[in-house]
Protein 1
Amino acid sequence: MQSTVLLTGGTGYIGSWICKYLLEAGYRVRVTVRDLGKTEKFAHLKALETGTQGALEFWEADLLKPGQYDAAAQGCETIFHVASPFMLQVKDAQKDLVDPALLGTRNVLEAANRSGTVKKVVLTSSVASIYGDIKEMTDLGLDAFTEANWNTTSSVKHQPYSYSKVLAEKAAWEMANAQNQWKLVVLNPSFVMGPSLTDNSDSESITMMKDYLKGKFATGVPNVEFGLVDVRDVALAHVRAAENPLAEGRTILSNISVSMLEMSKMIKKVRGSGRGLPFMIAPKFVIKLIGFLFGITAEFVEKNVNYPLRFDNTKSKQMLGIEYRPIEETMGDMVRQLSK
Ligand code: NAP
């Protein structure tokens, strides 16, 4: 018999790939969507079902509305809780980021508690829950961030997205430790890149690549580093985290760290042209002065520019058997898709 799983955020950039792999593995996948009337948000998932052994169902639920995940969770063995807004420019950080992340996680995990059937929850957290500002790695004397590190510095005013993720992950661990019906496995991806299965995602991953391609950073980029990981590797890690009985705790998912300028060079290599792409690093004092034009605060610049950023991905390889795709493939597939 098909195992039934619940997938929140299945309409999104990462969630769509998880949905694809679950269908291909033969699961009955219950995808929750905010509005069943907005069929354009999930039409692409119906196409993924064709030719697979899996089956797809759509259920309506909003992270902000208590009790809305209860019905969909009943009868499920596993919940993949992926849904959470990933935007860096928001009007009201509490309302737009923190509430859906934190209240949403509580709602989904309460549904797991009430289901009586859920045995495992796989939560999509982030490296944003591991650290707040890049400078912390140097301050802590680390060669790389590991799963032992926690973000203790973000707030609703400074790095609010990171704050939303650390609050949500902490709430999830508290709820997991207060019961013994289901096991929690947390995944902490760095910046996710690679091709998208949906044209309707507001994910910062897609926004950032579109910004590069339309020349937003042409005048220069700050010397800021990112951890990068392929969206397909992240999706596969979710399925393995669910299926592997030995999967436990938090796991960083990150392939390689690159600077914004190195990203630009990779894009140029794929496109064969540097038109509109940044070719120089903007000095820190200049970014401090004009950063507000790009939504960057002086505090962000101070604590994140000109510092190294590294992640230890050993656990993801050993526990989940992840073999990271070459970054050239990740960037190549994404740039080609968005350049069409
Ligand atoms: P995305 O494409 O914007 O997906 C976000 C998903 O959350 C969408 O399915 C969205 O539904 C859903 N959602 C947002 N607010 C909701 C609400 N109030 N009620 C119900 N559903 C809601 O972003 P993504 O990049 O795939 O991110 C997915 C997850 O990965 C997030 O938890 C994010 O923090 C985490 N993550 C992302 C990255 C990255 O680089 N992309 C890195 C680390 C972790 P709609 O379709 O209705 O908008």
Protein 2
Amino acid sequence: MRETSKEVPLQNFDGKVAFVTGGASGVGLGQAKVLAEEYGAKVVIADILPNRIDEAAAYFRSPDRKDLPVRILQLDITDRSAFANAADEVESAFGPVQLLFNTAGVSARVPAEKATYDDWDWHLQVNLFGAINGVQTFLPRMIELGEGGHIINTGSIQSFFALPTTALYSTSKFAIRGLTEALRVDLAKYDIGVSGIIPGAVHTNSLDTALARPEKFKNTTFSGHDGETALRKILASGMDPVDLARITMQGVLRNDLWIFPYPQFIEQVEERHRLVMNELMKWQDSVETVDTIR
Ligand code: NAI
């Protein structure tokens, strides 16, 4: 079954307000650029890192872009009251938010056996609770507005299978998959679409962001990426964030469940699904056994 494109809550993004977490770098910055420059949306970039914010601000201050409706604010998406204040500020300046891009994320490969609670907390607080905080902040406002909307969560290929040393990241990204599917079921009745982006490699600053860990999560054994040169090569050959954003906007306008433009993973995902089906099929002639156990 291809779960896609049932209802299309938003026909276009023209004049709509989009809130992009992690919008000062990489995938989020690509989304902000495409939304503002190609779709006529009003864009709010929310990011934690001052240097990234300065770079994004410089981009949007250039003479040919300075009139675009883009606001950039510093926000730690793990801070719930700051999130609510940001939403109030944005609404009074720009109007109600109808597009929520839960894009911010972090990834430091710390093997599970070496992980501290701070390692777990940082990944789960940013990658999962950051998205939950976005939903908790904006969903009631979208429902009250009553004009539909769209929530776009950023997962990863690691929302579908785990790689070695990625317990922290995969846990958070598998959860994004559950969050996305569950919200999609529940929010259709409000004309709020929900889509998940599933990137493979994207050419971004994520390896550097993993080294800019906030003080409150500072207890870690992580001091640098294993195989950093190889990882940098993989990212450098990854998709351009603006290209991914263009594909993303088309997927959102079709109301796709998954925006997953990485056909090189077809075999791996198929294999993963086969494995799950094999486990389930083992039981197909065992209804009696299951009943007996119960
Ligand atoms: P990036 O590091 O270039 O951008 C992430 C942005 O999130 C940064 O500007 C960072 O300051 C911001 N951020 C981090 N913690 C934050 C917080 N607490 N509050 C607000 N903003 C915060 O990385 P990239 O690659 O653009 O990552 C974006 C999303 O894409 C993430 O969810 C990541 O997991 C996902 N992704 C990236 C892939 C890649 O190959 N780059 C592959 C698969 C998924």
